[in-house]
């Protein structure tokens, strides 16, 4: 039997909030119930969006909540060489290409897609403006890319119609999330990705990248998103209320209920007691699929 290896991969744009705790709990339980490992990766590849101290605060909250991880934490800020190698492989095979179009140029010539303008492909056959430092885009095809999600069911996208050739390295030199996540999931041997439904619409792009790079595809499970009172996704950078590291149990119980699980018969005496019970009681089939807003 294959050892299940799950992961939690927060961006340090702020402390953990209820929404990210819910994703962490669902991911941890799915891995632990299968007797699997659960790895932690800090996705610190976008310094302008990071908050000083947030990565450490996330680690502390996970520890306080009893969501212990296996092995050393992987920091994406130390993985630039691996991303560059993957990028060069794609460019060498002409699967990706430099693009020097400005945001304005992209917007002017584009159709609107699921997540913004669909790039019209001006630099597909050669860069238009050689003086400007280019971004790098992955070429997409006119074909459906789909997968079976244990919560959402079958999900597919035609990337040419809905997304367009997408950026894998920005013009400012920063690698895009889509590339880094695929390189690192493979590097860490992740075969089960359980995360929030805001990333559902990123998954076909990640599958295409895996195919192009010859990397294995993990199983994907997307959990419903906790929304604020106005129906918006809670976000770390909006300073959604941080969790209380001194009293993690109430938030864990709320996250458990949010994931559609039966409450424990008697109130658990401690976080450890709750989690030990929850590993056995966790039932992914009770998690209701929610409409997935685009990332
Ligand atoms: N770093 C991403 C975030 O915090 C999550 C990445 C993933 O789970 O694939 O939204």
Structure in words:
By secondary structure, the protein is an alpha/beta fold. 32% of the residues lie in helices and 18% in strands. It has nine helices and twelve strands. The strands form five sheets. The protein has a three-stranded parallel beta sheet, with helices on one face. The protein has a three-stranded antiparallel beta sheet with strand order 4-7-10. Helix 1 crosses helix 8 and helix 1 packs across helix 9. The longest helix is centred in the first third of the chain and has 16 residues. The C terminus is likely disordered. The structure holds glutamic acid. The site of glutamic acid has 7 residues, from loops.
Strand content: 15-25%
What is the spatial order of strands in the main beta sheet?
1-2-3
Mean pLDDT: 92
Supply Rg. 20 Å
Judged by helices, strands and strand pairing, the structural class is alpha/beta
Shape: elongated
The overall strand count is 12
Main sheet characteristics: 3 strands, parallel
Keywords:
disordered C terminus, alpha/beta, 12 strands, 32% helix, three-stranded parallel beta sheet, binds glutamic acid, 295 residues, three-stranded antiparallel beta sheet
What are the SSEs and their pairings?
Blueprint lengths: L4 E4 L9 H16 L3 E6 L11 H11 L9 E2 L4 H13 L3 E4 L3 H7 L1 E3 L2 E3 L16 E4 L5 E6 L3 E6 H4 L3 E4 L7 H11 L4 E5 L6 H11 L5 E5 L25 H10 L12 H11 L14
Parallel strand pairs: 1-2, 2-3, 11-12
Antiparallel strand pairs: 4-7, 5-6, 7-10, 8-9
Helix pairs in contact: 1-8, 1-9, 6-7
Bound molecules: glutamic acid.
């Amino acid at each position: 039997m294959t050892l299940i290896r799950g992961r939690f991969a927060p961006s340090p744009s702020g402390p953990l909030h209820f929404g990210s705790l819910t994703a962490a709990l669902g991911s941890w339980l799915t891995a632990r119930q299968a007797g699997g490992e659960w790895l932690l990766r800090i996705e610190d590849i976008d310094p302008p969006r990071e908050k000083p101290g947030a990565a450490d605060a996330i680690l502390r909250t996970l520890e306080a909540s009893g969501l212990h991880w296996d092995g050393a934490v992987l920091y994406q800020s130390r993985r630039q060489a691996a991303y560059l190698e993957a990028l060069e492989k794609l460019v060498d095979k002409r699967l990706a290409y430099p693009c020097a179009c400005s945001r304005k140029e992209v917007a002017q010539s584009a159709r609107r897609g699921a997540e913004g303008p669909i790039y019209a492909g001006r630099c597909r056959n050669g860069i238009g403006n050689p003086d400007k430092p280019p971004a790098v885009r992955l070429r997409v095809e006119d074909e459906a890319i789909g997968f079976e999600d244990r919560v959402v069911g079958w999900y597919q996208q035609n990337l040419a119609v809905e997304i367009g050739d997408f950026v894998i390295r920005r013009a400012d030199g920063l690698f895009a999330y889509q590339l880094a996540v695929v390189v690192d999931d493979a590097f860490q041997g992740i075969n089960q990705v359980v995360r929030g439904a805001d990333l559902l619409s990123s998954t076909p792009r990640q599958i295409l990248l895996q195919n192009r790079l010859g990397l294995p595809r993990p199983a994907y499970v997307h959990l419903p998103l906790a929304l604020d009172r106005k129906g918006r996704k809670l976000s770390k950078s909006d300073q959604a209320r941080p969790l209380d590291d001194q009293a993690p149990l109430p938030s864990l119980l709320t996250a458990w209920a949010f994931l559609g699980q039966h409450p424990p018969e008697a109130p658990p005496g401690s976080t450890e007691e709750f989690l030990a019970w929850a590993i056995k009681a966790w039932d992914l089939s009770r998690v209701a699929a929610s409409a997935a807003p685009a990332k």
